[in-house]
């Protein structure tokens, strides 16, 4: 598949912090951006809620439950709701290998 470059402007400190986070997850900034784009296409929108709320008022447990519920719904829509943990881990490993080849 042909590749293209995308140039965006972000705060320098934000970029540094998010690169450190993605590195812990085994992702590059590029691979994480690709994950975001693919999820946006799958959901036909921003793949997470955008809300105007005071961060101190956000219930992390509720957010996690909502994310898991959305992931389960998306898995059903994609026809892969019955995937095993090994199958999911294999897909993640394959995506990481592909991203390293970029």
Number of beta strands: 0
Structural class: mainly alpha
Biggest beta-sheet profile:
none
Shape: globular
Which band does the percent of strand residues land in? under 5%
Q: Taking Cα atoms only, what radius of gyration do you get, to the nearest Å? A: 16 Å
Structure annotation, total helices: 4
The percent of residues in helical segments reads: 55-70%
Query: Roughly what is the average pLDDT, rounded to an integer?
Result: 82
What does it look like?
With 102 residues, the chain is an all-alpha fold. It has one domain (12-100). The chain is 62% helix and 0% strand. It is globular and about 35 Å long. It starts with 11 loop residues before the first helix and ends with a helix. The model has no long low-confidence stretch (mean pLDDT 82).
Provide the descriptors you would attach to this structure in a database record.
mainly alpha, 102 residues, 4 helices
Short description:
This protein has helices at residues 12-24, 29-43, 60-78, 85-100. With 102 residues, it is mainly alpha-helical. It has one domain.
Fold blueprint:
Blueprint: H1 12-24, H2 29-43, H3 60-78, H4 85-100
């Amino acid at each position: 598949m042909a590749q293209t470059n995308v140039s965006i402007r972000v705060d320098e400190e934000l970029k540094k912090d998010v690169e450190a986070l993605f590195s812990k997850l085994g992702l590059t900034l590029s691979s994480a951006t690709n994950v975001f784009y693919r999820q946006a296409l799958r959901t036909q929108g921003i793949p997470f809620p955008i809300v105007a709320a005071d961060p101190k008022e956000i219930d992390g447990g509720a957010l996690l439950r909502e994310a898991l519920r959305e992931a389960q719904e998306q898995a059903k829509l994609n026809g892969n709701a019955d995937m095993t943990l090994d199958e999911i881990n294999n897909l993640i490993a394959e995506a990481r290998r592909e991203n390293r080849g970029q």
